């Protein structure tokens, strides 16, 4: 396909952070010193090797919250004249920045976030070896913390996934960690811990009495069915899926593995990183690391592989986030996902086909892997962010005469009008 990929329209970049792509050039100060300086420069500017790891829209569509490799969470508020015609895209800069000393494993935005009401502009984040934080997106202050502690070692358990669904009324949130799903009450911060803990593997006693099925491994993805039936899907790095009733607090409906399927021979997969429900709630899309595509399951028949979306170009351990959006007539929807080649791809009405499905459209969005693809609640705007780890020392040795160049990569957040 060409860069426009046969799109019925031309996606237009209407806003972007300062691009870090291209080459930083210097003269006689020495490439080693420049490499050190480039490493120490704060993220988000032209000289930083920092890169975006993930991004999320706020429910009201006014704000994007990002997580970067420098362990900083940044809040971007979009300009009100975003879609008005202008000669060049808006330049985005962080409204606020929340730094962390340790890596951030997961984030989740309050489901009733509204920029018109600052008391609602909150998000959760899990930081390694720390309690879960509830923080204001407008000011880097922590409103509350929630502890999840290993009773044997007394060490903090860091969730690899957090879900803050509107189906729980904004009063509770769910976390996924090693063979464990927990339910927290937002009104009960501190050291009390979760209000319920649900192991994803049966206890020894249950195994003796009547057996039991479950899934072992880090619960790396959580998603609640949007149809209103309250089915929670949970996925692990060990490539298992489980379905639970009552938004995760009810009974186990079933478990199955996504390994050793027909799709494995075509797109591979080494662990679930994201789960997406179709808007109608009938189909579940499974995003994996080191995979060239996305799995598609008909959830009405638990564990039945309907097909797979191929051609994604995402064979990497890096999490590359996809999104789903309703489109056109009732039941129609699209899957949007980026790849390591910087291309954005769209699969239209994937549930209409069985087996392999190629992308319908694609276009070049970035010069580095597309770390996240996020659709605006309106469906007419898409956000993308990019980047990957680069080795400045390696590039600093690529020197010609008295000049040198250091590849900083494409570390950018872009907003596209469709």
Automatic annotation (TrEMBL):
Record field: compositional bias (Polar residues): 20-34
Region (Disordered): 20-57
Source species of the chain: Paecilomyces lecythidis
Protein name: Guanine nucleotide-binding protein
Organism placement in taxonomy: Eukaryota, Fungi, Dikarya, Ascomycota, Pezizomycotina
PANTHER family per UniProt: TELOMERASE CAJAL BODY PROTEIN 1 (PTHR13211:SF0)
């Amino acid at each position: 396909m060409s860069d426009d990929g046969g799109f019925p329209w031309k996606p237009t970049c209407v806003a972007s952070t300062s691009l870090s792509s291209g080459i930083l050039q210097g003269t006689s100060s020495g490439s080693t010193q420049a490499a050190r300086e480039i490493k120490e420069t704060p993220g988000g500017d032209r000289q930083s090797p920092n890169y975006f790891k993930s991004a999320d829209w706020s429910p009201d569509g006014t704000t994007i919250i990002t997580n970067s490799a420098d362990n900083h969470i940044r809040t971007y508020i979009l300009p009100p004249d975003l879609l008005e015609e202008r000669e060049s895209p808006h330049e985005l800069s962080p409204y606020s920045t929340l730094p962390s000393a340790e890596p951030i494993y997961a984030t989740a935005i309050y489901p009733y976030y509204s920029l018109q009401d600052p008391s609602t502009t909150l998000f959760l984040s899990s930081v390694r070896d720390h309690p879960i934080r509830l923080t204001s997106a407008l000011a880097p202050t922590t409103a509350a913390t929630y502890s999840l502690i290993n009773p044997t070692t007394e060490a903090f358990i860091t969730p690899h996934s957090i879900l803050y669904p509107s189906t729980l009324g904004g009063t509770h949130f769910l976390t996924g960690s090693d063979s464990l799903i927990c339910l927290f009450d937002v009104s009960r911060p501190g050291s009390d811990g979760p209000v319920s803990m649900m192991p994803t593997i049966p206890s020894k006693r249950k195994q003796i009495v009547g057996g039991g099925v479950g899934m072992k491994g880090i619960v790396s993805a959580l998603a609640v069915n949007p149809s209103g039936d309250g089915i929670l899907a949970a996925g692990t790095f060990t490539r298992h899926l489980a379905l639970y009733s009552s938004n995760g607090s009810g009974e186990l409906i079933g478990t199955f593995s996504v390994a050793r399927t027909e799709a494995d021979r075509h797109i591979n997969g080494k662990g679930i990183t994201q789960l997406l429900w179709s808007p109608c709630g009938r189909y579940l899309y499974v995003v994996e690391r080191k995979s060239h595509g996305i799995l598609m399951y008909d959830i009405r028949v638990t564990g039945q592989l309907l097909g797979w979306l191929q051609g994604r170009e995402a064979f990497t351990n890096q999490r590359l986030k996809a999104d789903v959006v309703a489109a056109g007539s009732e039941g129609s929807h699209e899957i949007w996902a980026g790849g390591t080649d910087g291309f954005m791809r769209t699969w239209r009405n994937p549930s209409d086909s069985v087996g392999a499905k190629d992308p319908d459209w694609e276009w070049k969005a970035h010069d580095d892997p597309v770390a996240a693809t996020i659709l605006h609640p309106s469906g007419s705007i898409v956000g993308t962010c990019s980047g990957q780890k680069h080795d400045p020392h390696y590039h600093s040795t690529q020197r010609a005469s008295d000049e040198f160049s250091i590849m900083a990569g494409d570390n950018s957040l872009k907003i596209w009008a469709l």
